């Protein structure tokens, strides 16, 4: 029944575009491109004879910091676009009356430095939502991103080419964007939308070809129209990324070496849909996770560092049901291995990660605006092994079964700004283990004038335990003013007590019934000393769904401002009424009540265009009427030594005193204690770029944290959320104090030796220590850390890009 209702709603919203018109279309510029019989040479010097007859797109207008001001006569921008049977070609002329001030900082691909740049946004379906950005800096760095509204996903990568040059009149860019890098409808004549942009870093100004009204809708709604592309055929979009890798690992006197090979594959199923497949994946060179001491009730989460799970996943992340770190994570039974030992047994093997066997995703969008996505991943069974020291027998226990992960998405877009979606995620585990299934219906709809945005989500979870099935439900409904300087909105969030998406998604809490509101005021062109600023006032009222009781109410305000000299600053303040925390006790339907709370934060960020720049943040939090306080401070200077050499240092300090925190869960009681906690983090990021294709980078992080409980502060939780003193004996086995220190260092050399191909040589050094010696201060802890065995790892990985069309032409030749 639910599925029928959702499908009916999908049809209703899909047909709504027949009765709505977009008034912005008439205001859009248009450009008619030219077919070339001969392709230009991509060398960054667009003065060949063939370019002279191509029409010019000019009359750029300001988008930042102003609002539609014409470009300076000293900094004109002209763009020409042409095409052949194989590719789109772009020539851009960025004139500058003082070329010495053109910023040309070097960086590797997809890292946009302090530099002038030129960009092209192409939307091959002219749907106002999904487009691909191609960006080229004045130093020659390439970047590409998948865009949806204001979001830019630079994890997306396609193979294309671009070159730049500079002379006494300015700088110039040439691009070749092959059709294999685009998806477009199978039509005799294409109608695309396009936007050109130019950033002049020295002036702190950004210009675009087609005017963008920042006060209404999204920037992707304001592309111009591209005509003239006729009778082109999508090439066979088949490319291979074979890799080989080897590593040597030294830890605690033991040396291990390994070698692996595998391949990623991309195949264009038709003009709209693409298959991405990874076979025998290798994630050995992914960035380290920023692990911290976690004493809270929720798992620590990390960002995704594996390229396959970040590239082209915009369809699969709808509804926030996909937390990709679930795939290949620590086995669910990893932490139970020690306590499941039998008498006379010792653990001889307990894998810390689940091996991914393969993964694939199919995604695309039809000419009618229907996006379809399918994702599948399979992980290997993981087993712990026990050795019976008396009999010599070896016993195995499954810690993670063979598991199949699936996602299916339908996303219908209409009116160039609105969409409705259906999504289903499914996790099936072999044997008598937990399985999960989640379905959701989503809508994101603008009215005709884009002045209001209506959003909603309805999600249903089904968790199949070996002994029972649980069905849960969650929803979100919101309306927001999306036009003008003054904006406001209200939202309602709901989840029942059995809502659970944690097989493939991530939700920490359920059983809530919350109301949120926000109002803000912003400017879209310079005023006084400001280029822009935003003032907001917000609040929420949080309730428990069952039983229906108030959890807390929050009120807050925030400010963001940036001056004409690109000095940014801001802050926030928040007040909360007494808070009933149902998760810190770790027992169902039990809460501890914390008193009312006030917190504030201020921050500054200086102009990154200077050789020396600074970011800093200071925060304070107080639980009123109690000694519970929290302080945090962050200090991060950055030094641009030259256009090739950049260093960023960061120091973060956090201290929290007298927090009533969970200690132990006993059969009849929940034990709390008064905890002091202190943390110090030092990190250093450095890069030296020999060119835009090769460079050395350093990434270092040391995080220390210590938590100690006062010996006479132990209490037990009573029914009303209050605490009363209790005698609790601390032993070596139940000592709640914690002392944590971790050190990670990555030093890598990266060389992109051909389009889509690269070599990475990586050295890693890591040390880790966790105990309960909370009496150690930071420098004593460092000495203790260096007495631990260090892991040294050296790895080499080579990926080579092979295109089917190139191989075919070579064979024919």
What does this structure look like?
Helix content is 4%, strand content 52%. With 813 residues, it is mainly beta. Among the domains are: 33-227, Sandwich (Immunoglobulin-like), CATH 2.60.40.1190; 236-267 and 635-813, no CATH class. The longest helix is centred in the first third of the chain and has 14 residues, at 2-15. This is DUF5916 domain-containing protein. Residues 1-18 form the signal peptide. Keywords: Signal.
Topology of this structure?
Blueprint: H1 2-15, E1 30-32, E2 34-35, E3 61-64, E4 77-83, E5 87-95, E6 117-123, E7 130-137, E8 142-148, E9 151-153, E10 161-167, E11 170-178, E12 192-200, E13 205-208, E14 224-227, E15 238-251, E16 254-268, E17 273-279, E18 345-349, E19 356-365, E20 370-379, E21 382-388, E22 394-400, E23 403-414, E24 418-429, E25 435-446, E26 452-464, E27 469-481, E28 486-495, E29 512-522, E30 530-544, E31 549-563, E32 568-576, E33 579-581, E34 592-594, E35 597-605, E36 612-623, E37 629-640, E38 645-665, E39 670-689, E40 694-709, E41 715-717, E42 723-725, E43 738-754, E44 757-771, H2 778-786, E45 791-799, E46 802-803, H3 804-812
Parallel strand pairs: 1-14, 2-4
Antiparallel strand pairs: 3-13, 4-5, 5-11, 6-7, 6-12, 7-8, 8-9, 10-11, 12-13, 12-14, 15-16, 15-45, 15-46, 16-17, 17-19, 18-21, 19-20, 20-23, 21-22, 23-24, 24-25, 25-26, 26-27, 27-28, 28-29, 29-30, 30-31, 31-32, 32-35, 33-34, 35-36, 36-37, 37-38, 38-39, 39-40, 39-41, 40-43, 41-42, 43-44, 44-45
């Amino acid at each position: 029944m639910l599925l029928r209702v959702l499908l009916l709603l999908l049809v209703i919203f899909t047909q709504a575009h027949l009765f709505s018109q977009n008034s912005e279309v008439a205001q859009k510029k248009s450009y008619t491109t030219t077919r070339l019989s001969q392709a230009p040479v991509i060398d960054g010097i667009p003065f060949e004879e063939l370019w002279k007859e191509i029409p010019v797109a000019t009359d750029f207008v300001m988008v930042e910091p102003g609002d539609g001001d014409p470009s300076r006569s000293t900094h004109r921008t002209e763009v020409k676009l042409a095409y052949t049977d194989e590719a789109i070609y772009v020539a851009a002329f960025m004139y500058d009356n003082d070329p010495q001030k053109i910023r040309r900082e070097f960086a590797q691909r997809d890292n946009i430095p302090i530099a002038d740049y030129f960009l092209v946004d192409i939307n091959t379906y002219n749907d106002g939502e999904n487009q691909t950005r191609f960006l080229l800096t004045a130093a020659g760095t390439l970047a590409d991103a998948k865009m949806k509204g204001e979001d830019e996903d630079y994890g997306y990568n396609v193979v294309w080419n671009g070159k730049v040059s500079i002379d006494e009149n300015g700088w110039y860019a040439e691009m070749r964007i092959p059709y294999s890098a685009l998806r477009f409808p199978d039509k005799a004549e294409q109608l695309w939308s396009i936007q050109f942009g130019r950033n002049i870093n020295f002036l702190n100004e950004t210009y675009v070809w087609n005017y963008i009204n920042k006060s209404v809708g999204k920037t992707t709604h304001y592309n111009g129209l591209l005509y003239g592309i006729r009778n082109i055929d999508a090439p066979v979009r088949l490319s291979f990324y074979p890799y080989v890798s080897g590593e040597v690992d030294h830890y605690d006197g033991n040396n291990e070496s390994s070698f692996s090979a595998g391949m990623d594959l991309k195949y264009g199923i038709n003009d709209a849909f693409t298959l991405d497949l990874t076979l025998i994946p290798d994630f050995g060179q992914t960035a380290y996770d920023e692990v911290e001491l976690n004493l809270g009730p929720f798992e620590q989460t990390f960002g995704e560092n594996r390229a396959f799970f970040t590239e082209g996943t915009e369809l699969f992340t709808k509804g926030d049901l996909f937390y990709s770190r679930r795939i290949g994570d620590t086995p669910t039974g990893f932490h139970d291995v020690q306590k499941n030992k039998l008498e006379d047994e010792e653990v001889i093997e307990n894998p810390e990660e689940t091996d991914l066997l393969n993964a694939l995703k199919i995604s695309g969008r039809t000419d009618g605006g229907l996006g379809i996505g399918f994702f599948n991943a399979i992980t290997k069974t993981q087993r712990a092994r026990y050795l019976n020291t008396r009999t010599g027998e070896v016993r195995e226990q499954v810690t993670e079964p063979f598991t199949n992960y699936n996602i299916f998405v339908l996303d219908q877009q209409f009116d160039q700004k609105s969409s409705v979606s259906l999504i289903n995620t499914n996790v099936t585990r072999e044997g008598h283990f937990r399985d999960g299934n989640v379905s959701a219906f989503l809508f994101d709809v603008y009215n005709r004038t884009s002045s209001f945005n209506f959003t909603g989500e309805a999600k249903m979870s089904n968790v199949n335990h070996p002994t029972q099935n649980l069905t849960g439900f969650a929803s979100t409904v919101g309306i927001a003013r999306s036009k003008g300087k003054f904006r406001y909105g209200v939202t309602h969030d709901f989840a029942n007590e059995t809502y659970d998406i944690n097989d493939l998604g991530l939700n920490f809490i359920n059983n809530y019934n919350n109301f949120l509101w926000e109002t803000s005021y912003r400017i879209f062109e310079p005023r006084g000393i400001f280029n822009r600023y935003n003032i907001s006032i917000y609040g929420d009222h949080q309730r428990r769904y069952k039983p229906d009781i108030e959890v807390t109410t929050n009120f807050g305000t925030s400010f963001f401002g940036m001056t004409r000299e690109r000095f940014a600053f801001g802050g926030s303040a928040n007040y909360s009424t007494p808070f009933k925390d149902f998760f810190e006790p770790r027992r169902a339907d039990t809460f501890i009540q914390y008193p009312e709370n006030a917190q504030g934060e201020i921050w500054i960020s200086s102009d990154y265009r200077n050789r020396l720049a600074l970011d800093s943040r200071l925060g304070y939090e107080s639980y009123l009427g109690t000694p519970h306080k929290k302080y945090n401070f962050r200090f991060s200077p950055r030094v641009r030594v030259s256009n090739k050499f950049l260093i960023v240092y960061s120091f973060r300090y956090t201290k929290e005193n007298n927090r009533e925190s969970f200690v132990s869960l006993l059969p009849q009681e929940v034990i709390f204690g008064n905890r002091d906690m202190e943390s110090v983090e030092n990190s250093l990021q450095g890069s030296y770029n020999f060119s835009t294709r090769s460079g050395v980078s350093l990434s270092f992080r040391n995080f220390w944290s210590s938590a100690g409980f006062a010996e006479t502060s132990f209490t037990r939780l009573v029914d009303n959320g209050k605490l009363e003193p209790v005698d609790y004996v601390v032993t070596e086995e139940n000592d709640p104090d914690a002392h944590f220190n971790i050190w990670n260092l990555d030093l890598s050399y990266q060389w992109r030796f051909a389009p889509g191909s690269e070599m990475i040589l990586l050295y890693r050094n890591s040390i880790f220590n966790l105990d309960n010696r909370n009496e150690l201060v930071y420098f004593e802890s460092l000495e203790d850390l260096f007495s631990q065995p260090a892991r040294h790892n050296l790895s080499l990985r080579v990926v080579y890009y092979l295109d089917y069309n190139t191989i075919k032409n070579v064979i024919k030749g």
